[in-house]
Specification:
By secondary structure, the chain is an alpha+beta fold. 38% of the residues lie in helices and 28% in strands. The protein has 5 helices and 8 strands.
């Protein structure tokens, strides 16, 4: 299978992108880079400036805030959207717990992704809202 076709098949398996058709998958393939990352690699460091959005294809990520584990993410889940949406610092540190295959979408490409694909934008915003509620259940929103 050619590399481009393999990448599109990988993207097709991600729940966030399942509503996308053939032409959309090709565009997603253009916007996202596929990377293999070894275990114990810090992808995001709390307090830093956002540069990318990550979608887990294979592997496991550990999310820590102020040194405390707050969640773990696996295939089909994503991270990095909060700081990209609001332009603020990263809210957590994210580390690979196992060798992981990720789709990485850079800052500019992330905004293009949201602009071009309203269904993906809705999924990202829904996840963002759920994360805010989980982090601050007492907040009145």
């Amino acid at each position: 299978m050619p590399v481009a076709d393999a990448k599109l098949e990988l993207i097709r398996r991600v729940p966030l992108f399942q509503a996308c058709g053939g032409k959309d998958l090709v565009e997603l393939g253009r916007l996202a880079d596929e990377v293999d990352v070894p275990a114990d690699t810090v992808l995001i460091r709390q307090g830093t400036t956002a540069d990318a959005f990550y979608v887990v294809v294979e592997g496991r990520l550990r999310v820590e805030r102020d040194g405390q584990v707050v969640t773990r993410l696996g295939p089909g889940e994503f991270v990095g959207e909060i700081a990209l949406v609001d332009g603020g610092p990263r809210t957590a540190t994210v580390t690979t717990e196992a060798p992981s295959r990720l789709l990485v979408v850079g800052h500019r490409e992330f905004h293009s992704l949201l602009d071009q694909f309203p269904s993906i934008e809705r999924q990202v915003l829904l996840a963002l809202a759920q994360r805010v509620r989980a982090a601050q259940p007492e907040a009145i929103l």
